[in-house]
Write a structure and sequence with these properties.
This protein is an alpha/beta fold and 653 residues long. An eight-stranded mixed sheet has the order 12-11-8-6-7-14-15-23, with helices on both faces. A seven-stranded mixed sheet has the order 5-4-17-16-18-19-20, sandwiched between helices. A four-stranded antiparallel sheet has the order 21-22-24-25. A hairpin with a 3-residue loop joins strand 28 and strand 29. Helix 5 crosses helix 6 and helix 19 runs parallel beside helix 20. The longest helix is centred in the N-terminal third of the chain and has 17 residues. The mean pLDDT is 94. The structure holds 5'-O-[(S)-ethoxy(hydroxy)phosphoryl]adenosine. 5'-O-[(S)-ethoxy(hydroxy)phosphoryl]adenosine binds next to helix 11, strand 24 and strand 25.
Length: 653
């Protein structure tokens, strides 16, 4: 625990919580106390949601069987809450500010333009047969059309499944098949750091194996590549302008599925985490407002990708539901130089900036100069998400980027939680570098003993270490794993009944502040990307040269965690640099470039127990150069593999 003394936030009062910590504590209590909570959520939902039909009950069900439901009986339309309801007062306000890959090529779209664009896309989808309830897979780059495609789906009541445009054809195909999408939206190409990614080509490769896909809607990013078209393709640049700029907004039930997003877990293939309309939208909108103290004149820049949950909640739905100006950033932080973010802050007068610790650490390595040469006086709030932030990076972000004048929001949450579950509130919560501080409204964290599942006793002045569970459903707690509620129960709700299990380790400190210590399951968090060790291993063993593989995360200065794979090669195969390169390529093409292993280490034998289970604990310690803390190795079937392993890792590092 790096620092226990809180840093008081310099921004002054929180707009919506002017009474500071005391008011937060009152509101928090109101949000979870059974006698007041319905009223709390009733008031909040009235602020953010235009109900088409009022709901009958605020919440029902719970984590015991995973039947938790919010605003039951209500009907709404998410695109209408994000667009239509702002038109009377904000038609000309910039809704989406697009910063293209090449600096200087930004574009502003007003609320009216996004409304019209969304309606036209929705009408084009309908024209080609897409109907309420059909899944639409969206495999698109960071361009305004992508946000409009998502909003168009919500307009006509089609759940979307956005697949990050860095995934390969195989991963895309698996996700199309799992969600049974008949409709796919893509673009000709994507641009990132001057590179061109041939999205249409990848989509074709995926869709060729998906006989259920009826249409591929192709949006134009550059038009410069002569991509071959098929009968199933729809040229959106030709069709969309012909569509009417009004489309009826379907009345959707609060609990109908709004979207799925595939995410990695400990075992098996990625699962489609399902969120429903009302609870998700409310929580995305509320957290955007409170966690970032959002104001009407803010320029809000979340520089994540819409292909991840951060982009769903904090590029598209949260900011737009609040009527804010949201930035979509197409490029990478180091293109054309490591001052790109700050140049963008200066150009667009960005006031809220939200990124991942891995990007902060990568930029820190270039020193202060690329930051300081740009005017950052518009910045008020700096957010981080995706992994624990080390206090050194926190301080650099606070002192250098924010000139010690901005609040830092270290927001802890997950794809499954839909929005922030723990975060300091600017101007309200005294911050501690590296801690996600206190729970958001409606969220009840519990630190449990991993073995017994009992809550670890805590009182002021004491510390509690364990694993993190959340006690009661909050509005955007994911509802199920698409098509596999049993897996949902097994992964999240059956482990520490009757709580939701996050998969993260956690410490509650002397002041009651929470510190996330990282995943305790077989999920890696590398550069803020979640990757299941099982996914990497299955890509490796699919190669004939690999007999067995074990993947673990190890500390990495920039990425947080690096990916280290230990390999037992097939008999008769000898290791060579070419083979290792080929194996890295196998993982890249099975999952995507972001999953490329940092270290591939062929070993004579993996450390296994007598029953054949790989002892990952030993592999982790060796990769982290903590071989003095191996613990008990006497249960190994063959302890002599350990010194060989250590020698091999030293050589590889
Ligand atoms: C980690 C991203 C520490 C955590 C929104 C979680 C964090 C996983 C933080 C979810 C944070 C996210 N501090 N750890 N502020 N934010 N994590 O689903 O391990 O891509 O379980 O969602 O990221 O990753 P996911």
């Amino acid at each position: 625990m790096a620092e226990l003394k809180p840093v008081y936030d310099p921004i002054g009062q929180h707009h919506a919580i002017p009474g500071g910590l005391k008011q937060y504590e009152e509101m928090y209590k109101e949000s979870i106390d059974p006698s007041t909570r319905d009223e709390f959520w009733r008031k909040q939902s009235a602020q953010f949601i235009d109900w088409i039909r009022p709901y009958d009950r605020v919440s029902t069900g719970g984590f015991a069987v995973g039947d938790h439901a919010w605003f039951v009986g209500g009907q709404l339309n998410v695109s209408a809450c994000c667009l239509d309801r702002h038109l009377a007062t904000k038609a000309d306000k910039t809704a989406i500010l697009w910063e293209a890959d090449e600096p200087g090529q930004s574009k502003k779209l007003s609320y009216l333009e996004v409304f019209h664009g969304t309606c036209r896309v929705a009408n084009a989808l309908k024209l080609h047969g897409c109907r309420k309830g059909d899944f639409v897979t969206i495999y698109m780059p960071m361009m305004p059309d992508t946000a409009m495609a998502m909003l168009a789906c919500t307009r006509i009541g089609c759940p979307h499944s956005v697949v990050f445009a860095g995934f390969t054809a195989t991963s895309l195909k698996d996700r199309i098949v799992d969600s049974q999408s008949k409709w796919v939206c893509t673009a000709d190409v994507g641009k990132r750091g001057s590179k061109t990614i041939k999205l249409k080509e990848i989509t074709d490769a995926a869709v060729n194996d998906c006989p259920n896909v009826e249409r591929v809607f192709v949006f134009k990013r550059t038009g410069e590549h002569g991509v071959p078209y098929h009968a199933r393709d729809v040229h959106m640049d030709l069709v969309v302008p012909k569509m009417r700029p009004y489309c009826h907004a379907e009345a959707m039930g609060s609990e109908e599925t709004m979207f799925t997003l595939y995410t990695s877990g400990s075992t098996g293939k990625p699962k489609g985490v399902a969120h429903s309309y009302a609870g998700y939208l409310l929580f995305a909108a509320m957290t955007t407002k409170y966690s970032f103290d959002l104001r009407d004149d803010d320029v809000f820049a979340c520089v994540a990708d819409v292909g991840w949950i951060t982009g769903h909640s904090y590029i598209v739905y949260g900011p737009l539901c609040n009527g804010a100006t949201t930035v979509m950033f197409e490029s990478v932080p180091t293109y054309p130089d490591p001052g790109r973010y700050w140049q963008m802050v200066a150009t667009h007068k960005i006031s809220v900036f939200y990124t991942a610790p891995t990007a902060i650490r990568a930029l820190m390595a270039y020193g202060d100069e690329p930051v300081k040469k740009h005017d950052r006086s518009s910045l008020r709030i700096l957010g981080t998400v995706g992994e624990p932030i080390n206090p050194e990076a926190w301080r650099w972000y606070f002192q250098v980027v924010g000139d010690s004048k901005c609040a830092i929001a270290d927001t802890y949450w997950q794809t499954e939680t839909g929005g922030h579950v723990m975060t300091p509130l600017p101007g309200v919560t005294p911050m501690k570098p590296g801690s996600c501080c206190l729970p958001f409204f409606g969220v009840e964290p519990k630190v449990l003993d991993a073995q017994s599942g009992q809550e670890v006793a805590w009182s002021k002045g004491q510390r509690a270490d364990g694993v993190l569970a959340l006690a009661k459903p909050w509005p955007s707690a994911c509802r199920t794993v698409w098509g596999d509620h049993e897996r949902y129960m097994a992964t999240y709700l059956d482990c520490y009944k009757p709580y939701y299990f996050t998969g993260d380790g956690c410490t509650k400190d002397e002041d009651g502040y929470y510190w996330i210590t990282g995943r305790v399951d077989d999920v890696l968090n590398t550069s803020g990307h979640r990757i299941g060790t099982a996914e990497v291993e299955s890509a490796l063993v699919a190669h004939p040269a690999v007999a067995q593989a074990a993947t673990i995360g190890y500390p990495h200065d920039i990425k947080g965690q690096g990916i280290c794979c230990y390999l037992e090669l097939t008999k008769g195969i000898t290791e060579s640099p070419e083979l290792l390169k080929e194996l890295k390529g196998a993982v890249r093409s099975a999952i995507g470039p972001f999953a490329t292993p940092d270290l591939l280490i062929p070993v004579a034998g993996l450390p296994k127990t007598r029953s054949g289970k790989i002892m990952r604990r030993i592999l982790r310690k060796v990769a982290a150069a903590e071989e003095d803390q191996l613990g008990d190795v006497t249960t190994l079937a063959d302890p002599s593999v350990v010194p060989l392993l250590i020698a091999k890792v030293k050589q590889a590092q």
